[in-house]
Structures are given as C-alpha cells and as structure tokens.
Design goal:
187 residues, mainly alpha, 5 helices
Amino acid sequence: MARTQMIKSDELLVRILGERHRHPGPERRVHDSVQARHSISRDLSRPGDQDQTFGNRLADQVARFGGSWTFILVFTGFMLAWAALNSLLLTRDAFDPYPFVFLNLILSMLAALQAPVIMMSQNRQAQKDREAAQHDYEVNLKAEIEIMALHEKMDAIRLHHMAEMIARQEQTIALLQRMIEAKGDAP
C-alpha cells in the first residue's frame, strides 16, 4: 500500500510540476519534502548567520534611525539651532555666517554617507523579501500538492464506497427478485 501511495504521489507530482521537479530549485525541494513527508515551512523572522555581521547591523541601525521621526526632529532642531546660533547669537563672530556654507557641506557629507548605507540596508531587505516570497511559493506549492493528493484519496475512497454500495444494491435486487419469484411460485 505504501509503495502504491508513493507511486501515486510521484505521478501526482509529475502531473503538477512536470519535469521541473527533476532540476534543482524550489520545485525539487517541494518534491523531496512531499516524498519524505517533512514540513517545508520555517521561521524566516529569525536572522541567519549572514545577517549578523557588524556592517549589516550598522546599516540596519542607520537606516532605521535615518528613516525615523526622531531623526527628522533631532536634525531639524540641529539645523534651527545652527542657524539661530550663527545668525542671531554670534552675529559678529559667527563660525558659519549666512548662507551657511559649512552647514551645507555637513549636510552633503551626511547625505553622501547615509544614502549608500540606507541602500545597503534596502538591498538586504529586498533579498529577505525575495527569500520570503520564495518560501511562500514553496509552502503554497506543497499545500496545493497535498490538497490535490487529499482530493485524490477522497475520490478513491468515494469510488470504493460507491462500488461497495452498488454491489450491495445488486445483491439486494437479486434477493428481492428471488423473493418475488419464490412468492410467484407459491400457491
């Protein structure tokens, strides 16, 4: 019976996946998972070893802080304080008088450093998103295969029960016919 189920499972996989299950990739992983009767889902929220480098953690922190309201408010406060200090308080001895060339230089350098770090973080997030989409595809594909296998099992059970019911009905009809014939022969 297990051998028959494995053959039917193979036939089902070939029917759904075609020849894709023979090549390395998500279809092959799903095929192997179905054959081994193992779960394919995994927790993607836990960071892997590749995510634990100092540079990656720093990029994520810079992107997280640089894209927050805290950063916007702190930096707005810094720029207002800079302008007030150099325009109002230090009118004669301002270290960066209006039009604030030094402030522009600082802002340009900050943008030049912050942009690539944020892009690194976004690239890593995009990679995580691709991995999550790939994982979702594999889980959905396996679920689809398992559901189709269950449908086939249910259809086989239903056909088996229908065949038994038809056989019983034929026996009942034959018994009824014999009873009618026996009653017709009786005086």
